[in-house]
Amino acid sequence: MILPIPNRITEGDDFYISYNAVDTSIYGSDSTALVWGEMQGFYILNGDHRERYASPISQGWDACYAYYLAHPELHNPRGDKQFPPLTGAELLELGSSKRPTT
Question: Which of 43, 45, 61, 77 is 20 to 30 A from 24 via CA?
């Protein structure tokens, strides 16, 4: 039996965008996650946001995180919630073994 690959990944610098159209029973719909490092930060939007992240991803973490914050009505409850928001530099200061507080 062939299993579907649930995530489509687009790499950024120390972060990535992960689109998942398979695990709708877990997330309630298809979802797009903005993921810092090795999942130290996991910010999920309901729906497919790959095209809308295409421009911000080339501008870096802060631009992508700003896009995420601009759409609170689409935040998925399974994602992290960090307020006030951390910049990429602040996340780096936390170190790769620590996760932002939620």
Answer: 61
Question: Kindly report the CA angle at 93 between 89 and 94, in degrees rounded to 5?
Answer: 120
* 14-to-21, 88, 89 alpha-carbon distances in Å: 23, 9, 11
Residues (pLDDT < 70) of the chain are 1-4, 82-88, 91-102
Full-model pTM: 0.76
Domain locations in the chain? 7-94
d(CA 51, CA 91): 25
